[in-house]
């Protein structure tokens, strides 16, 4: 039975993503955020459980990408579509939000084939991008001139889409050792992220996104790989 456990966890990721999409379309962004958090947890643990149980499989890898396509591809596209709908009377402009979905699919396909991404990422990973997009409705009350601006949302859609398929090298949280010297910037990123989340909650997500890129650049510069 143990060979079915990782795929069951992956299916829970998919199920949570489906519910999250429905929440977005109903304007229930808080519930959608909880669904994204659940999907992120399931996405983290399915691979870990597969490695611990020594039951990694090709179908598991494909299923993981299909689940991620909903939770971290279609869902953020739906969020951007919904936000654009609120700031324009145009029938067609909101559909540009689904560029995020298209580029998420390209990013996931690239990840599956790119042998350079076995331990780190090239391009922003889809969960990190999704957390950024899902945080936007919560920023609207504090920054209405940005989140309520159609041109800002379209520009952000384009930037996020390009970052997904960029050649920007970013670390993953897989640790080959617990050494401080080898993982200094990963540890610093975790500490800074924890402090930001405790103090700012959802409002911290855009800052965490920026710090992720900065600490990744510092990490690979230290490693001599930048």
Description:
The structure is a single chain. By secondary structure, this protein is an all-alpha fold. It folds into two domains: about 1-165, Four Helix Bundle (Hemerythrin (Met), subunit A) (Up-down Bundle); about 170-225, no CATH class. The chain is built from nine helices and two strands, in the order H-H-H-H-E-H-H-H-E-H-H. The protein has helices at about 5-25, 30-55, 60-85, 100-115, 125-140, 145, 150-165, 180-200, 205-225, and strands at about 120, 170. It is globular. The model has no long low-confidence stretch (mean pLDDT about 95).
Q: Predict the CATH topology of the largest domain.
A: Four Helix Bundle (Hemerythrin (Met), subunit A)
Structural class: mainly alpha
Biggest β-sheet: strands ordered side by side in the sheet: 1-2
Strand content: under 5%
What is the number of beta strands? Answer: 2
Give the N-to-C terminal Cα separation: 44 Å
Poorly predicted regions are none
Q: What spatial form do the alpha-carbon principal axes imply?
A: globular
Q: What is the fourth-level CATH superfamily of the largest domain?
A: CDP-alcohol phosphotransferase transmembrane (TM) domain
What's the assembly state of these chains?
single chain
In the CATH hierarchy, what is the architecture of the largest domain at level 2? Up-down Bundle
The mean pLDDT is 93
Q: In CATH, what is the class of the largest domain?
A: Mainly Alpha
Q: Quickly count the helices.
A: 9
Radius of gyration: 18 Å
What kind of sheet is the major sheet?
Answer: 2 strands, antiparallel
Order of helices and strands: HHHHEHHHEHH
Question: What is the helical fraction, as a range of percent?
Answer: over 70%
Q: How many discrete structural domains?
A: 2
């Amino acid at each position: 039975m143990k060979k079915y456990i990782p795929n069951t966890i992956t299916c829970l990721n998919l199920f949570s993503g489906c519910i999250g999409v429905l929440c977005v379309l109903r304007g229930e962004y808080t519930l959608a955020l909880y669904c994204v958090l659940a999907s992120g947890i399931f996405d983290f643990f399915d691979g870990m459980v597969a490695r611990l149980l020594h039951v990694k499989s090709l179908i598991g890898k494909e299923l993981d990408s299909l689940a991620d396509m909903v939770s971290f591809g279609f869902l953020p596209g739906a969020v951007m579509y919904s936000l654009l709908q609120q700031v324009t009377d145009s029938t067609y402009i909101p559909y540009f939000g689904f560029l995020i979905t298209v580029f998420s699919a390209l990013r996931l396909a690239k990840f599956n084939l790119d042998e350079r991404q076995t331990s780190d990422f090239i391009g922003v990973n889809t969960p990190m991008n999704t957390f950024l997009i899902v945080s936007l409705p919560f920023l609207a009350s504090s920054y209405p001139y940005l989140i309520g601006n159609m041109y800002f949302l379209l520009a952000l859609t384009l930037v996020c889409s390009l970052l997904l398929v960029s050649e920007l090298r970013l670390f993953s949280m897989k640790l080959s050792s617990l050494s401080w010297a080898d993982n200094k910037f990963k540890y610093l990123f975790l500490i800074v992220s924890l402090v930001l989340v405790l103090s700012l909650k959802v409002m911290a997500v855009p800052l965490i996104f920026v710090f992720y890129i900065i600490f990744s650049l510092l990490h690979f510069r230290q490693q001599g790989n930048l």
